[in-house]
């Protein structure tokens, strides 16, 4: 295993350099997906592809075994004007690799890939599938969610995002609400009309002050924030409509649909969720993977940021090399030693892991 680990670790770093050099903004991942597919095929794997999503199985799927999914994303955000390095230069300076997507999520992506290659020929107590997917940065419909039906039943997902290889055992969900309060127009100089803004203010106060009963030990309370308000046409007309947007970050105690029902029953305005897709996720502390991670000295926490976990309706955990604080920042980088350590930790977590 040690020779394999060294070989695939070195190749993973080489591949990451090539991936950084390929522009791969969300919905523009075709070329980087080609590069990933070519590398996996070169290693003797039967690669499947749908859109810009690439996946492969370690061995033929055995339906008597549980299935573990390794997943991370190919796409990146666009670089800001504040970069001092070439975002696509993949500059290596000693232990440091600087480039767009190096940390989010190139490092975790290739670390999971190298771990998959190390394990693919082993006699595992689980099926193992690796998926490099698209559109994570925009929560797009053509990302990992579009291929889950192709994979069949998944028992555990390991989502590669920069967590310093600590275990994000829960992740906040997201629901965006477009709300509208209705009134009647009238002249502001007379006692006419029904002011939609005043009606909205009552509901906005409810969103500001309402406390949901269930508080997560990992993620805390549900958080609702009114972030945009649009109202009125001119100074002397009582507005008949007031539209506002609410950003809802939910813990694992509720689903988006449950929260929507509670909200609708408490406010007078129209409440229209943009989607119910991005639910909170969590893995029980007694799960074998978490218990092994604790034995290895890994810490655990609840993550406030969303990832592709949000569209997975099965048990999942988020963990990967790199640091979330570097994501989406100018001169984003990852340390090569972080990638090597990440692969080593993944292998220790997964060796002979029984999740049945």
Describe the fold and architecture:
- The chain is of the alpha+beta class and 356 residues long.
- It is 28% helix and 24% strand.
- It is built from eight helices and 18 strands.
- The chain has helices at 2-20, 30-42, 102-119, 148-151, 196-209, 256-264, 288-295, 336-350; strands spanning 48-50, 53-57, 67-73, 91-93, 96-98, 127-133, 156-159, 167-171, 173-182, 186-187, 223-231, 237-238, 241-250, 270-273, 281-282, 300-303, 316-318, 333-335.
- A six-stranded mixed β-sheet has the order 1-2-6-3-7-17, with helices on one face. The chain has a four-stranded antiparallel β-sheet with strand order 11-13-9-14.
- β1 (48-50) and β2 form a beta hairpin.
- α1 (2-20) runs antiparallel to α3 (102-119) and α3 crosses α8.
- The chain is elongated, with a radius of gyration of 23 Å.
- The two termini are 25 Å apart.
